[in-house]
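Following up on my earlier thread - several people asked me to post the actual chain instead of describing it. Fair enough. Here it is, all 314 residues.
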Amino acid sequence: MQKWEKLNPGDVIDIIAPGYATKPETVELAKEFLRSRNYVPRVPDDLLSPQYFHSNSDAVRLRHVKEALKAKDSKAVWCLRGGYGTNRLLPELARLQAPKKAKIFIGISDVTSLHLFLNQSWKWCTLHATLLDRPAEKRIDAKIVNETFDILSGERREISFAGLRALNPKAVKVARKKAVLVGGNLTTLQSAIGTPWSIKTAGRFLFLEDLGERGYRIDRMLEHLKQAGRLKSCAGILLGQFVGGDEPTSQNGVAVNRVNEALQRFADENPSLPVWSGVESGHGDILRALPLGTSAMVKQVNGVITLSVETGGR
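Reply from S.P.:
Thanks for posting it. Predicted structure:
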């Protein structure tokens, strides 16, 4: 895997919107935010011209992504928003030759499609971290923002997540296990099955998170991963934040949510696969940066389970 170079003050960061559109004022706030951190934001003049479900046409969004990834004068590419549409760009991106140097690539949710492509086709380490609209609009805790920039600047070469929970006996028995970490948004990963970008999990930790999916849908997607052979020889499952997903009817006025039930069922039905939960990354309020394509370690000491992940920088 190719590691990325750390950011220095004055470095250029390309802003792209490969999925949904956002408000023009959010773009301006994003630029101001990056300037406040002493970086130089660069935004295509035609970034936003909403069409169908996306920020722009496929052709224009593809051009933005290609130019950002291949630009020799920028160090990072930061996605403005998720939503839907990134997967539509992959067939044309696959025609590109990978640049000689990897750069930092940041985003979550639908952006998982690009993480898959960059991790598997170009062998880049990437960052499953906040979309740029959140810090721009001050919708994310300052501590999380600072931690993310500590990673980007190279001040942190490893990030740890303590207090994970073992969801099945196999996970309880793990004292120490090391593997490369891959994954992202469950819905996006599951939709890639059967394509050239179907996730490769053999010998790797698989991280999963999602937003707004009800319990039976989570169950269906996990079962699809299993039946498609994506869990065969997997080193273990690391569950992040599964936000929302309430059932349409309540009980005595109280919302019913069956997501955790689905996740526990999955852990119980796969006794040979260690499953842990509690990784603070995903669509929740605590959205910590999680490196993908890098070496990770799950360690249990005195009953406390910790995940440590190399950042992917050099």
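The chain has ten helices and 15 strands. That should answer part of your original question.
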